[in-house]
Write a structure and sequence with these properties.
Blueprint (H helix, E strand, L loop, with lengths): L1 H23 L4 E7 L3 E3 L3 E10 L5 E11 L2 E3 L7 E5 L3 E10 L3 E11 L3 E13 L5 E16 L21 H4 E13 L11 H7 L3 E9 L2 E6 L14 H19 L4 E6 L2 E2 L7 E6 L2 H12 L1 E2 L6 H11 L5 E6 L4 H12 L3 E6 L5 E3 L2
InterPro entries: DUF58
Pfam families: DUF58
Keywords: Membrane, Transmembrane, Transmembrane helix
């Protein structure tokens, strides 16, 4: 009889404490996670900072934290001992266990290597807690909007010969070189047509003849880098040779970086799809400057290797959007008859087209 009442009382205690833990265990439990920066390049290491706090007088015997992350975010071997990682081909599951006393805060930093370009989200985290006997009591799913944008690693191949007549300046002066009013390199005698605002009055008084500021010149030619995400001419939807297309993205990033940082203008276009805008026509018009360069790199980060349009159709649509003669560098695994026909149309409209086959050495000039 005594054993009978002991079992009843024990069961009642277990039930009551379980109800209590279920009611209060996750109250005022705070959890946050964020990367230490918003952007990085392929191969860079970033820090993922987690903070867990129990902001009440009630202890937590155990707390389980579970989340899913992309397998491209590789955690270092020195991660916390209470972090269990189960990695698959595309995703990895993280599970951590904690015990939190009242008014206790835990902060830990994970060192993560971004092994592949892309846009990675910290979407959801599930918190589960239990009672003193290890029985599950309550759970809560938190939503996060934190993102890490990983830029492609810029690659500029040694054999990527830039066309000398355009990108290196051997062109008509009226089209290639203009005076930069912000770069003064000396003075010269006044010529008919010079603006009076450019008169150097000190030099004029010193020489007795009207003198104007000598301005340096700058390049204003535009280059549009066009990437074909097709890995062969008859592709339908699935891209099999992803590595070759990824290398094409790195070459596009390296070319844009080289051009913009050498004072020229660059843009980016592709027949692929963007992560957040599946139906958008990818065309970043050429311009210069570091902000524009990182805008191009971010577009490349968001690019999905999925074809939106056949490459020849995309080129025909692109030709309708180009309102001035432009240098185009096409990065493609193929150039079949339909693509060549589209290139001929671009050339007839005054554009200069250079083709680099991603699976072969060298370039083919189709202008």
């Amino acid at each position: 009889m005594t054993a009978y009442w002991f079992l009843i009382i024990t069961g009642l205690i277990v039930f009551i404490q379980n109800r209590i833990f279920k009611a209060v265990s996750l109250r005022r439990v705070r959890y946050s996670r964020q990367f230490d920066r918003r952007t990085c390049f392929e191969g860079d290491e970033v820090a993922l900072v987690e903070t867990i706090a129990n902001e009440k007088r009630f202890p937590l015997p155990w707390l389980r934290v579970e989340s899913l992350l992309s397998a491209s975010l590789r955690f270092g071997h020195d991660h916390a001992s209470n972090l269990d990682i189960s990695a698959g081909q595309f995703l990895q599951n993280h599970r951590s266990f904690f015990s939190l006393m009242p008014w206790r805060r835990i902060r830990r930093t994970h060192h993560v290597k971004a092994s592949h370009r892309g846009c990675y989200e910290l979407s959801t985290v599930t918190l589960s807690t239990g009672d003193l006997f290890g029985l599950s009591a309550a759970s809560n799913t938190l939503n996060f909007s934190e993102r890490l944008i990983v830029y492609p690693q810029p690659v500029l191949p040694d054999d990527l010969a830039l066309p000398p007549r355009s990108w290196q300046g051997d062109m008509s002066v009226k089209r290639w070189v203009v005076e930069d009013p912000f770069r003064r390199i000396g003075v010269r005698p006044y010529r008919s047509g010079d603006s009076l605002r450019q008169v150097n009055w000190s030099a004029t008084a010193r020489t007795g003849d009207l003198q104007v500021h000598q301005l340096d010149t700058t390049a204003d030619y535009a280059v549009l880098i066009v990437l074909n995400v097709e890995d062969h001419a008859e592709v339908w939807r699935t891209i099999n040779d992803v590595d070759t297309i990824e290398q094409g993205i790195r070459i596009a990033a390296g070319t844009a970086t080289h051009l913009i940082r050498n004072g020229m203008e660059a843009g980016f276009a592709s027949n692929g799809m963007l992560k957040d805008e599946m139906q958008s026509f990818i065309h970043v018009p050429p311009t210069g400057g570091e902000p524009h360069l990182f805008g191009i790199l971010e577009t490349m980060s968001m690019l999905l290797i999925e074809r939106q349009l056949p490459f020849y159709e995309y080129l025909l649509m692109l030709s309708e959007r180009l309102d001035q003669p432009t240098d185009l560098l096409l990065l493609s695994t193929h150039a079949d008859d339909r693509v060549v026909e589209a290139i001929d149309r671009l050339a007839a409209e005054g554009h200069r087209v250079i083709v680099r086959l991603l699976h072969a050495e060298g370039e083919a000039n189709a202008s």
